[in-house]
Amino acid sequence: MTPVDVLILGASGYGGGELLRWLSMHPAVASLRGTARSHAGRPFHAQHPNLRGLVEGTFEAEPDWAALAQSAHPVLFSALPHGELAKQWPAFQAAWAQLDLAERLTVIDLSADFRLDPGWIYGLVDWQPERMRGARRIANPGCFATALQLALLPLADWKPAFVAVTAATGSSGSGASPSDTTHHPTRADDFRAYKVLQHPHEAEVLRTLAAAGWAAPLSFVPQSAPMVRGIFAVAQFPLPAGIEVGALRARFEAFYRDRFFIRLVEGSPRVAATSGSAFAEIGVAARNGHGAVMVALDNLGKGMAAQAVQNLNLALGLPEHTGLKVAGGWPV
Ligand SMILES: NC(=O)c1ccc[n+]([C@@H]2O[C@H](COP(=O)([O-])OP(=O)(O)OC[C@H]3O[C@@H](n4cnc5c(N)ncnc54)[C@H](OP(=O)(O)O)[C@@H]3O)[C@@H](O)[C@H]2O)c1
To answer: Which of 113, 239, 270, 322 qualifies as a FRET site for 331, CA 20 to 30 Å off?
Structure first.
């Protein structure tokens, strides 16, 4: 297995911490470094206490491109807030050009900055995994967008006239900086909708559905749930005439037949069963001409860092489950 050297931008955040956790268990990773402006010089475990004793290293103020350029297989993950990588991209490219790094560097961005950019591969790994093989620029999907697309793509050739989707997220979806939407007392016993019918993830979902041949009118109501990790999405739609639950389920079984990290379950998927893992669970139901698809996943796992590592595996030509065959705890 070819050893790779990894630099993570924004390593002190939730996505950065999850990347450190997953990559520390990855057999191809020879070295791990991470940047964070406000924690520079402090050990990784100062922000990520779960990594104490397992992942050595300190946050660095700036990326050390010269050190990364020494690697035969350099890899960059960006877990910066929306807009930051795009802002710094021209300066980064100039630095990489001087070090002959740009072409050799595999970049996986967790933000939305390049998800609609034709120069990047959209990293919805369980849809078209072959697109990731050898890719050097991968834009990892959003967490809601991952759940919605996993629910809707198997329906694309039925082209339902209308799909109504609700999806609830845990508080870690807003990142590590405290805000009104993550503060425990205002969130723990509440349940509310936000960005109703206008969530920014809709654009990437609609683009993928269009590529799959379905110009779906999508009605998406995101919700904020009293949990830390997890997304639970429900899509409802009219079924084609004569389609019962068996045919709906068979369609999902066929679509995800070879997808190790997609589990089809009887009844409802469970957020807690996917927590801390690279798995997404899907359940289906049908009655009286209406279908429902439910998806559960960890927003920081399949919805973010674990999907990014799955993408890295494919980009490097490794088996996609390398370093990812891990179950979360039960109960969480
Ligand atoms: N949370 C989720 O469920 C989720 C899921 C999928 C995708 N995403 C996307 O993944 C990215 C990271 O999300 P996150 O939840 O990990 O965020 P986060 O917890 O807020 O972490 C952001 C990281 O970026 C650094 N940072 C903040 N502002 C910066 C700036 N102006 N310049 C450079 N570094 C800066 C922060 O550390 P310093 O301030 O110390 O530099 C921190 O390390 C975001 O684009 C987010 O939209 C998040």
So the answer is: 322
Q: Could you give the number of structural domains in the chain?
A: 2
pLDDT digits (tens, 9 = 90+) for 310-330: 999 999 999 999 999 999 999
Report the alpha-carbon distance of residue 328 to residue 64 in Å, rounded: 33
CA–CA dist 31, 39 (Å, integer): 20
CA–CA separation, 118 vs 121, rounded Å?
Answer: 7
Task: Residue 214: give its domain's CATH number.
Answer: 3.30.360.10
Return d(Cα 293, Cα 4) in angstroms, integer: 38
pTM for the predicted model, two decimal places = 0.97
End-to-end CA distance of the chain: 33
Distance CA 94, CA 91 (A): 5
Give the integer Cα–Cα distance in Å for 165 and 106: 34
Whether 13 is catalytic = no
Give the pLDDT score at 182: 86
- Phi, psi dihedral angles at 331 (to 5 degrees): -70, 165
Residue with tokens 């960059």: 76
> How many Å lie between the centroid of ligand 1 and the Cα of residue 25?
22
Residue partners of 72: CB distance under 8 A and separation at least 6: 2, 3
What tokens appear for 31 in the block? 């070295």
Ligand 1 atom showing the smallest separation from residue 299 Cα? 3
